[in-house]
Prior knowledge:
1 helix; DNA-binding transcription factor activity; transcription; transcription regulation; Putative Ocs element-binding factor; protein heterodimerization activity
Amino acid sequence: xxxxxRPTTSSGSxxxxxxxxxDERKRKRMISNRESARRSRMKKQKQLEDLIxxxxxxxxxxxxxxxxINTTSQRYVEIESGNNVLRAQAMELTxxxxxxxxxxxxxxxxxxxxxxxxxxxxxxxxxxxxxCPLQPIMASAEMFHC
Length: 146
């Protein structure tokens, strides 16, 4: 048997007010401890629920950002493709203009008349107009998943 249990006797000590006060304090402390433990468990449960909700919200944000990155990347590829087509067309038109200018030079020499020959734009004078396609560094949204 446990040595902590107080044996019940009829020696009259149960009716002693000192023991009654000690028992009452123990009982109140036990009730208080149980209530404190219950509040602590409820607080931990609420914290866990809050963290689970926050995790769900963050996962939703990640999914939205991933979708946005994928959409933006796809749009970038489409625009870059369109730019490449325009660059190719510009190069082709420049070549055609050079050919036509050559013809105009020949006409000018043969006829002896002054012919207005259009100037061919020099891409080196406008460095922001890149004459050849850039090679982009592609990234996908999957790179950001843990």
